[in-house]
C-alpha cells in the first residue's frame, strides 16, 4: 500500500475525529466532543506547541495520525521531541502508515536539531510495540502520574 504523510489541516477534522475517537477507545479513555475540539484547536494554532501529521492511502483516505511537540531536557540542555499520540485505522495496520508517521516526526526532529524523539505506549500494546522495537530503542524508564 502506498502511504503519504503530510501535516494535518483544518479540512482533515472529520477523519481525524473518527480516528482520534478510535484511539481513545483503544486506550479506554472517556472522551467528549469538547475534548476533541480542544485538541484539534491546539493542532490548528500556530502558537501552540502541538503539531500533527496524517497518513493517507493511495485513494487519499486518512488512515492514521500522529501528534508531536518539542520538550526540553534540562539535564542535557537540549530540546527534544515528544511523539504524544499515534494511531492507525485497524483496517490499515500493516500498511507502513505507523512507520511513515514516525519517520515524518523524525524528519522534523532532524530539521529542528532535536536530540531525540521520545514516546510512551501501553505495556499491552503488543502490535504497536512490535513496530516501535524495529524503529527505536526501548528505554528502562518507568513513568508515574500524579494528580494534583
Q: Care to describe what's here?
A:
By secondary structure, the protein is an alpha+beta fold. The chain has a single domain, classed as Gcn5-related N-acetyltransferase (GNAT) (Aminopeptidase, 3-Layer(aba) Sandwich), CATH 3.40.630.30. Helix content is 35%, strand content 24%. The protein has 4 helices and 5 strands, in the order βααβββαβα. Strands 1-2-3-4-5 form a 5-stranded mixed sheet, sandwiched between helices. Helix 3 (97-112) links the parallel strand 4 (78-88) and strand 5 (117-118). The chain is globular.
Overall pLDDT: 94
Reading the helices and strands in chain order gives: EHHEEEHEH
- The N- and C-terminal alpha carbons lie at a distance of 45 Å
- For the record, what CATH class applies? Alpha Beta
**Beta-strand percentage range:** 15-25%
What is the CATH H-level superfamily? Gcn5-related N-acetyltransferase (GNAT)
Largest β-sheet summary: 5 strands, mixed
> What does the radius of gyration come to?
15 Å
Which CATH architecture is right?
3-Layer(aba) Sandwich
Amino acid at each position: 500500500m502506498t502511504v503519504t504523510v503530510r501535516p494535518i489541516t483544518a479540512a482533515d477534522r472529520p477523519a481525524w475525529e473518527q480516528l482520534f475517537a478510535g484511539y481513545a477507545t483503544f486506550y479506554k479513555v472517556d472522551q467528549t466532543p469538547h475534548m476533541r475540539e480542544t485538541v484539534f484547536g491546539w493542532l490548528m494554532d500556530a502558537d501552540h506547541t502541538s503539531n500533527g501529521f496524517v497518513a493517507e492511502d493511495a485513494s487519499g483516505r486518512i488512515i492514521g495520525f500522529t501528534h508531536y511537540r518539542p520538550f526540553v531536557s534540562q539535564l542535557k540542555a537540549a530540546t527534544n521531541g515528544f511523539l504524544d499520540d499515534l494511531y492507525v485505522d485497524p483496517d490499515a495496520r500493516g500498511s507502513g502508515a505507523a512507520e511513515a508517521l514516525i519517520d515524518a516526526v523524525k524528519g522534523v526532529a532532524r530539521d529542528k536539531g532535536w536530540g531525540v524523539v521520545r514516546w510512551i505506549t501501553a505495556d499491552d500494546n503488543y502490535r504497536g510495540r512490535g513496530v516501535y522495537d524495529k524503529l527505536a530503542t526501548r528505554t528502562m524508564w518507568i513513568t508515574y502520574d500524579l494528580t494534583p
